[in-house]
Amino acid sequence: MRARPPVAAAALLLALGATAGCLGGPVPTLSGRTPDPAPPAPAVVTGDVNPADRDAVRDGGTLRWAVDSVPATLNVHQPAATADSALIAHALYPALFRPDAHGEWTPDPDYLTAAESTPPGQLPQVVTYHLNPLAVWSDGTPLSAADLIAQRAALSGLDPAHPAAGPAGYAAVDSIVQGADPHEVKVTFRQPCGEWQALFGPLYPAAETATAAAFGRALPGGTAHPTAGPFLVDGYDPAGGRATLVRNPFWWGEPAKADRIEFLAVPAERRTEELARGRLDLAPLTTAVEHAGADPAEALRLAGALPGVTLHRAAGTGLAQLTLNAARETLTDPVLRRALARAVDRRHAADAALTPFGLPAAPLGHHLLAGDQPGYRDDADALGGADPGRMLDTAGWKRPATGGTRARGGRELALTLLVPAGSATLRRAADAVAADLGAAGAAVRVAEAPADDFVRDRLAAGDWDLALFCWPAGPGPAGRQRPVYAKPRPGPDGVPVAGRNYARAGSEEIDRLFDRAAAEADPAARRSLLQEADVRIWQLGHSVPLFQRPELMAVRNGVAGAGVWGLARPRLQDLGWSAP
């Protein structure tokens, strides 16, 4: 079975951000300018939502929501799934835990009355879920242990017939049984799982996951596919670009405020026009502005001036990074990789990427966490305080007395920086990075590749030196991020298999730190292990975190509870129109 990036990662890899580096104190740059002393990084707020209490939202009405496409499947673990699959699925299917605004898991009382794990260090680890007795699938079947048992079998990776594997925690499960009553479920782990809250969300009915054939079917909802959310599917037309959800009359929780939500497939370049004509109420506009050609600032101004519409903007959940390909002959030396990382001015790139969106030029300093996640810290000092020029000299890349490009053994330090085509934001940041590295004596040529095959045909193939793209932040970083930094292992032919570690650099120590973090039940101890892993990733010269990719959401005035949700997940039953 061929590995693939997870849904959220795949979506963000095509949305891409950029790079730069202001590392530590006032180190003179090789271009002669001396940066001002770096102040503490501005507070990063990952989200911008128009808050509203449910009591301030009237009952009724329709919300029209622009999406890239109406997805072919709502099973987020299928290869055909998209970010829109996840958005719609969470209106229809249970999630036992939900992420809050800081990416921390909280139990969802609509599905759980309680959940507890055995104390840290007590083996085996047993998690006891107390399902809400009122929770039922739309065919009347109660949620039960059978649903968790079938989903674990589908996503554990133990059955090669299933087309996908889920988060690592599923493979750690040893058994699932019903507890003292039909609403109690006991999950026993064969090895500790610190991020167990990430499992079973979305949770699908047993009939949809019990066999490989059932798991492989599309899930458009409706009576043929039981759901258990605040909404039901009333119409689902991928070809026509429309999915209509209506209130679930069998819903046991707080009823949905809106009568209907219509998800409409609208190309990014047409969304401002559709908003201006009053045909949309919610529309992500990040791509429209990023791909606005030579004048994204004008596109942003026009979006912000739409009558009757508020433009929400915030640092998003995509962590933009500069990745260095350690499999390339020039970049096999970690000393050189660290020197190049040290030469990148992260604030320069953040300014190029974020200032046009009206956001603070906040450089990112952590590979695994967004700026407002608990445990975030700027770890760039792990590169050391040496001047990048001296570091390059130490690596044997000398600058000619007349200036210009460095060389070693008659070979110039000439590198290609790969970016996806079409994004003015990404191109600005890439140009900033190329300028920084050029000032240090590396000749960097920015090359664009079609966004549609950027991951499959370029990143995975490895025919590049440097690349700019994003990985998603979110809850459960130990399990989510481990494959991105895992040491490549030899395949059957003896050649290391990179998987999703496109930098092709790793270490046994980093792998052990991720494994220990994933098994650590104590949140503070888990964050400490992730901090140590991040420091080692910096020291490896794997990649340079740059900034959080901006996100824009246009919301029609009067729509309450909407905007850029960031690390949180929208509670769609609370969205609606403000009471008069």
Shape: globular
Number of helices, counting only DSSP H or I runs of 4 residues or more:
16
Largest sheet, in brief, is:
6 strands, mixed
Spatial ordering of strands, largest sheet: 12-21-13-18-16-17
End-to-end CA span: 55 Å
Number of strands: 24
User: What's the overall average pLDDT, rounded?
Assistant: 89
- Cα-based radius of gyration, to the nearest Å: 24 Å
Sheet-strand content, in percent, reads 15-25%
Low-confidence region ranges: 1-42
Protein structure class: alpha+beta
Give a brief outline of the structure.
Helix content is 25%, strand content 22%. By secondary structure, the protein is an alpha+beta fold. The strands form eight sheets. Strands 12-21-13-18-16-17 form a six-stranded mixed β-sheet, with helices on both faces. It has a four-stranded mixed β-sheet with strand order 2-11-10-9, with helices on one face.
How are the SSEs ordered, and which strands pair?
Layout: H1 7-13, E1 48-49, E2 62-67, H2 83-92, E3 97-99, E4 105-107, E5 112-117, E6 126-131, H3 145-155, E7 173-178, E8 184-189, H4 206-209, H5 212-215, E9 231-237, E10 242-247, E11 260-265, H6 271-276, E12 282-284, H7 286-290, H8 296-304, E13 309-324, H9 334-343, H10 346-354, H11 388-394, E14 407-408, E15 411-412, E16 414-420, H12 424-439, E17 443-449, H13 454-459, E18 466-472, H14 477-485, E19 489-490, E20 496-497, H15 508-519, H16 523-540, E21 543-556, E22 559-560, E23 563-564, E24 576-577
Parallel strand pairs: 2-11, 16-17, 16-18
Antiparallel strand pairs: 1-23, 3-4, 5-6, 6-8, 7-8, 9-10, 10-11, 12-21, 13-18, 13-21, 14-15, 19-20, 22-24
Helix pairs in contact: 9-11, 10-12, 14-15, 15-16
